[in-house]
Design a protein that fits this description.
With 145 residues, the chain is α+β, with helices and mostly antiparallel strands. It has five helices and six strands. It has two domains: 40 residues, no CATH class; 88 residues, no CATH class. The strands form three sheets. The chain has a two-stranded parallel sheet. Strands 2-3 form a two-stranded antiparallel sheet. Strand 2 and strand 3 form a beta hairpin.
Length: 145
Amino acid sequence: MRINHEKTEVMMFYETPAQRATRFPSTFHITTRFPPSQPPRTFPLKKTPTFKYLGLTLDPYLTMESAMKHICRKINVAHQTMAAVAHSLRYDSSATDRGIRSSPYVFFRIWQPCVLSFATEIFRYLLTNAQIDAVERTLIHSLQL
């Protein structure tokens, strides 16, 4: 089994500039010791500003700003998908079904799994009222067709 050093990234949480200055070595490396018949090889690891952990975008100080921006982008993409589905339901059906298929209730029922699910999975991680307000504004905008 081998670790892919090209895909492996490293992030230090809550590291102060003083801690960064005293860290030795200043970069992170991984040393392979397999197979035993070959000499060990050392590879540098990339330091990343954000990364995804179980679908949640994390930053070094866990401010959740990058997670909030990511979820707003996902809501906007889901809204565009839902708008395309709503357009198809409205205009690609017969005149008799058009009223039933384009009712606000039908659109709301489509909106719930397509858009709302992205927001509810991240709300518990948001730290500030401004972050919650940003996601709320994005959700309200997504309800308008």
